[in-house]
């Protein structure tokens, strides 16, 4: 029974880590989009951000 409990705890921690990695991926996508907008704004003399 202890092994099952430990396995369940480990799976919960892994799921949490995967969720964090997923959030980081979304943040990375947002930062990439922001950098593109910033670069376009600089080249066009606009200030959309």
What number is the mean pLDDT? 92
Strand content: under 5%
How do the SSEs run, as a string of H and E?
Answer: H
Backbone shape: rod-shaped
Unreliable stretches covering 5 or more consecutive residues? none
**SS-based class:** mainly alpha
Largest sheet entry = none
- The radius of gyration is 20 Å
Helix content: over 70%
Oligomer: single chain
Please, how many helices? 1
- Strand element count: 0
Distance, first to last CA:
56 Å
Brief descriptors of the model:
single chain, mainly alpha, 1 helix
Q: How is this structure best described in words?
A:
This protein is mainly alpha-helical. The protein has 1 helix and no strands.
Quick structural overview:
This protein has 49 residues and is an all-alpha fold. It has 1 helix and no strands. The model has no long low-confidence stretch (mean pLDDT 92).
Could you outline the blueprint of secondary structure elements for this entry?
Layout: H1 2-44
């Amino acid at each position: 029974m202890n092994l099952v409990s430990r396995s369940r705890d480990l799976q919960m921690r892994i799921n949490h880590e995967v969720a964090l990695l997923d959030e980081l991926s979304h943040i990375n996508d947002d930062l990439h989009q922001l950098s593109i907008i910033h670069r376009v704004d600089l080249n066009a003399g606009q200030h959309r951000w």
